[in-house]
Amino acid sequence: MRPYKHPAASELSLERVLYALSDSIRLEIVRQLAGVEVATCGDLDGGRPKSTVSHHFKVLRESGLVRTENNGTIHMNSLRRADIDSRFPGLLTAILAQHPTD
Amino acid sequence: MRPYKHPAASELSLERVLYALSDSIRLEIVRQLAGVEVATCGDLDGGRPKSTVSHHFKVLRESGLVRTENNGTIHMNSLRRADIDSRFPGLLTAILAQHPTD
C-alpha cells in the first residue's frame, strides 16, 4: 500500500486549515485526535460509511492537520499538532476551546 | 431596498464562521473590517468584480461575521466583533493573528 502524501509544515495554508475545520464531522475527528496519540479510522468514524469518512480524512490530510500512516492494513491517524502550532500559533487551541455548535 | 438578514448572535455556528474565513478574499475583507468601524463594499472589494464580491459578502453575512446596512444606495459593512467574541471567545483574535498564507 502506498504511503499517503502529506504537505510539509512550511506548505500549510491558513485557509485550507480553516476549511478543513469548517465541517462538523472533521472538527469532531480533530477533537478526538487531540486527546490521543494515534487512532484508527474505525476509532474515529462514529459509525459513518467508509466512503464518507475517507473523504473527510483526505481533506484533513491535505490541510496538514492529520497524518495517516499505514501499519499493515490498518491506517493510523495522528494530529499534526506541533506542525500546526508552529505554523499557526494559538489557532488550534482557540478553535478546540469552542463548544461544538452544529 | 430591503434590509439584509443577519443571524442572531445565539444562532452563530462555529463551522459556518470557519467556512466563511476559509477563503483568502473573505479573510482579507474581515482583516480590513477589523481595523475600521464601517466600510463600503467599494472600500473592501480590492478592485474585484461586483458579482464576486457580493457573493463573498453574502457568505460573511450568513456566517454572522459581517453586518451590512443600507444607507441610501450605499451598503455599509461592519464586523460583528462583539457577537463573535461573545459566542466564540478568542477565536477571531487567534485567526487574525495569523499571517496570510494564500
TrEMBL record, chains A, B:
Record SMART domains: HTH_ARSR
Keywords per UniProt: DNA-binding, Transcription, Transcription regulation
GO molecular function: DNA binding; DNA-binding transcription factor activity
Residue ranges of domain HTH arsR-type in the record: 6-99
Pfam family, one: HTH_20
Xref: Gene3D superfamilies: Winged helix-like DNA-binding domain superfamily/Winged helix DNA-binding domain (1.10.10.10)
Keyword DNA-binding: yes
Keyword Transcription appears in the UniProt entry: yes
Protein's UniProt name: Transcriptional regulator
